[in-house]
Amino acid sequence: MPDARESRTPDFDVIVVGAGFAGLNALHSLRGAGYRVVVLDAADGVGGTWYWNRYPGARCDVVSIDYSYTFSDELYRDWSWSERYAQQPEIERYLNWVADRLDLRKDIRLGTRVVSAVYEDADATWTISTEAGDHITAPFLVAATGCLSVPSTPHFDGLDRFQGEIHHTASWPAEGVDLTGRRVAVIGTGSSGIQAIPVIAESASELTVFQRTANFSLPAGQRENDEERVRHRKASLAQWREAAWNNSAGFDFEPAALGVDDLERERAYAELDRRWGRGGFPEIVLAFDDVFKNREANEFLAEYFRSKVREIVRDPDVAELLCARDHPIGSKRVCADTRYYETFNRDNVTLIDARATPIASFDETGVLLSDGRHIELDVVVMATGFDAMTGALRRMGVVGRHGTTIDDAWASGPHTYLGIQVVSFPNLFMITGPQSPSVLNNMILGIEHHVRWITNCIDFMRRHGLRSIEPTPEAQSGWDDEVRAAASETLYPQAESWYVGANIPGKPRVFMVYVGGFDKYVRTCDAIAEEGYEGFVFDGPDGAAALSRSGIATQ
Ligand code: NA7
């Protein structure tokens, strides 16, 4: 008797999970290609990471004119960012504007959390189950679930007894939190903490910062956008796009060597001072490629950063504590701040070395440190990061062929082909998935590239009557090797960062980003598609036969 499910008609052609930058772009592209698409998102609004991360001071650390969709000249032309680095509310407004402008809302179901995604081999169909108990089917599933979308709150004894408020930066209440005159603790000094701390210090009566590891941070150089520059960019978007697609990081500048060997130290310092004054990654961190590979150049730059901390922070002991030493600069995300170090000169701000004197426990009124000190608190801010890169797919309960779970497949860290697909998970596509350039390149271009690639791939399958696609194990392990080899030429793997999963207890330590160059990556993916999707198999293990049946050449 045939399985009843074999004859069922799927509800949609494509289910996209996530309504942030990636999901909105995917919906527009796939719907434009004629597919029936639905986007599901747990949030009550569009925006993805820019919906959730509403903490005080939340801001993008990529300049706003580079952090915009480029797939549509009209969109690019008709939106104007007010600041060099956009704040969260403005980015959220932008994404809402895009959703309206492209008439996307009618295909987006908000407040819809996906609790499982199961692939059925018999009819090559994904069934998505939602928290509300709905089931939705489609042959294709696109995970537009973001790289930093699962907040992580470490375990602290007694936290549930604390009678004050606790807020994670990545699930900050939409109505805001009034911190005026309150005693606040911020736990964590990554990008989120470093952005939030100066703003919180201005309203809190007392702010206690718990720093376990000092980070490198530089002034963002925040200012209003230079109107002339914006006009020029809008007028020359096509050239910018061309340059960025062919750039190793997806921007329009090519890094050069800091070259500490060649330059006299004074000259190098003078150059760095000039750049520090202008602020932001393009000026300093991303400007020098040898810094990511050469330990000497790296230490030179790191020491320059430390000298700046000592210049700014008046108390020498506090300054030393704020100097990052445990990792090469750039091997963890360098932070872009607005008066972060200056904040530690305020009378109402105290820095606690949470490595020397960790939090022992919480009680009803505050926190007890390992040295016996008790700090009374009204509000605790967890700026403690994310289960990055793999967390979202793992939380979504993804089950592929023969009951293989994504947890099984990634037990030793993520394995993918091109960061786009995974063996045993046919027709599941990831946007900026692990092992793609993602967070270490221009995210928006990375998203646009994946969206284009996925749309073309589904088109190809439709044209050739193919039902399913997945990578071969050989191609996947080859990509593992490429990702590892590219990382081994850099200093990235030397840090205990979220790039390697070190911030989540029990998570395998594997460097999860492809750092072989954005331009090279784009060329590789596009060549694979043009050559008939080498390394992928269509319609299960009988893929070669499926391809030849479809009338196209097989390798
Ligand atoms: P990050 O960069 O992962 O930072 C999390 C911070 O929280 C970091 O300073 C951690 O210290 C700290 N942390 C985590 N657990 C603890 C405990 N138990 N005690 C004390 N401190 C702790 O997350 P962000 O949200 O700031 O930024 C994530 C990305 O978003 C960022 O890189 C940008 O790309 C945007 P640790 O370093 O682990 O010692």
What does this structure look like?
The structure is a single chain. This protein has 555 residues and is α/β, with parallel strands linked by helices. It folds into 2 domains: 4-150 and 388-548, 3-Layer(bba) Sandwich (FAD/NAD(P)-binding domain); 159-382, no CATH class. 32% of the residues lie in helices and 15% in strands. It contains 17 helices and 21 strands. The protein has helices spanning 21-32, 49-52, 73-78, 88-101, 191-203, 227-235, 237-245, 265-278, 295-312, 316-322, 340-343, 391-395, 406-409, 443-464, 473-488, 518-530, 543-549, and strands at residues 14-17, 37-40, 108-109, 114-120, 125-130, 135-138, 140-143, 165-168, 183-187, 206-211, 217-219, 335-337, 349-353, 359-362, 366-369, 374-376, 379-382, 398-399, 428-430, 469-471, 536-538. The strands form 6 sheets. Strands 3-2-1-7-19 form a 5-stranded parallel beta sheet, with helices on one face. The chain has a 5-stranded parallel beta sheet with strand order 8-17-9-10-13, with helices on one face. Helix 1 (21-32) packs parallel to helix 14, helix 9 (295-312) packs antiparallel against helix 10 and helix 14 (443-464) runs parallel beside helix 16 (518-530). The radius of gyration is 24 Å and the shape is globular. The chain starts with 13 loop residues before the first strand and ends in a 6-residue tail after the last helix. The relative contact order is 0.13. The protein binds ligand NA7. Ligand NA7 binds at residues 148, 154, 169, 187-193, 210, 212-213, 333, 354, 383-386, 439, 498, 503.
